[in-house]
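Task: complex structure prediction.
Instruction: return structure tokens for all chains below.
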Amino acid sequence: MSINRKLSTQFDTIASVLEVMGANAFKINANRRVARIIKEYPTDLAEFAGDKKGLTSIEGIGSGSADRILEFIDTGQINELTQLASEIPEGLIDLLEVPGLGPKTVRRFWQEAEVTSLDELRKAISDGRLESLPRFGTKKIENISDSLAFMEASGDRMRLGTALPIAESLIETLLQVPGTRKIEYAGSLRRGRETIGDIDLLAVSDDPDALAEAFTTGPDVIKILAQGKTKCSVRLERGVQIDLRMIEDSAFGAALMYFTGSKEHNVELRERAIKAGQRLNEYGLFPDDGGEGTPQSRGIQPVASRTEEDIYEALELPWQPPELREQRDSAEDPPPPLVTTDAIRAELHAHTNASDGVMTLRELVEQAKSRGYHTIAVTDHSKSSGQANGLSPDRLRAHIDAIHEINDEIKGIRVLAGSEVDILADGRLDYDDELLARLDIVVASPHAALTQDSKKATSRLLAAIEHPLVHIIGHPTGRIINKREGLSPDMPRLFESAVEHDTVMEINANPLRLDLRDTHVRLAVEMGCQIAINTDSHRPEDFDLLRYGILTARRGRLGPKQCINAWTARKLHSWLAGKRS
Ligand code: DGT
Ligand code: CA
Ligand code: CA
Ligand code: ZN
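Output:
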């Protein structure tokens, strides 16, 4: 994983802290600029370890920034930030995390209303202290209050896209510890939930003490919560908690099944076992002899325990993919065919540096080709997305020509001229029909006015679904997980209309979005709606985000037949063209 995002956030936070402190604008802007350069840098800056000369040769990176980047590559932090943060009340940093609260406002709250923490902010809202501040209307305060409520509701669950890379890299490290035979992740992470409470790891090792030692002394560990013979727990930065359990190989399947959950799925299986005169626990499926205590402690041999498949079979149940082990699923339902990452043959939503991507058109096409795709759609932003450098009609016309040219030039992949056109607040699209008709593919997405009520959101999205020139509705609600609720339209109505008008609904695979979400997908699949899984790539490595979209799709029981990215080139292209006739 590239360090660029994390590093960029550090510089942004430095800028924010400076702004809260009231530092001069020049210094603040300089840090913001470096943050942006880092964020948009196309390759992993970690490759510059020890290479100050290389770093300063990047435009916009001076000697001081290079030193701080090198420090971050080396130690995972920037001392200057720790220093700065210690000069202001600690709680102000938390305030910066509240959606909609910028550093300027945080400074005013602090200086003018003595608000220095989330708790203080809540108090200040309820006792009316904020309303007496000049230029602070009730509407603004209401928005802040909503953000706080939303933050509380989402708690401190981390996003899937944060948890999975942490788990994978930790597993890779721990597998190097002598004696370790295998490690797998279980829990909500294995089920692919969009947010994860804690990461559950299961290990088989010939030297559990060595493994426990390595686990609890890892470089990112800030606190050891438990260290025992069979279970260790640690906390990493930002509240990430990880459990590691030592398992006997002979009972690995039983443990994997138990700790994968969900709890409700476990209860369902256990009740089924009881009905069959058996007992199921994390050590195996045992015959019930009516004796006291656990069967394993009395030396009873399990009927099945080594693999999950053995246990499901002994329970006379089909093996259930982890994504289908939620309360809403039934263990008895034969699992339908589910879409896989390997089945995906086309990316239908991607950006170039014509709008806010970092790839040139050619780089985007080469990237898609290297992934083995038969089709790539170039869908840059439309003019209303000003902050994303959206294309004016004239720029789009030139872009279409460039895309058609590269399509003729590069063999082995079809390059579609498209647009991610804004669905405006009232449901109109951001380009006129004459221009839209010149595109091979139109993805229509909401980007602004994401707090409008459900009724308005429904008619807005229906207008786009019914529009004859629209193929796909991109990230339909516009939510950002743990940050922004997004629209809450009447989903059944949207899906019904999507089926009628042959319009496809997107699962945006970016782990910040996962929009449609799993429950929406499940409903859409049931109603016969076609689904796209797109990464919305802005940089080359974004193509790797596909797996989060796949997990979400699988949780919604999506099969390859209903997923247009899994179609053959012939079927996909004929649908794209046919939609217009
Ligand atoms: P999370 O961490 O909140 O995202 O969700 P999970 O599902 O990973 O839950 P966690 O970490 O508390 O426990 C992991 C699995 O262990 C859980 O999915 C099912 C199993 N488990 C934990 N506690 C219980 C329990 O009291 N009863 C049963 N039947 N299973 C449990
Ligand atoms: Ca967990
Ligand atoms: Ca756990
Ligand atoms: Zn996009």
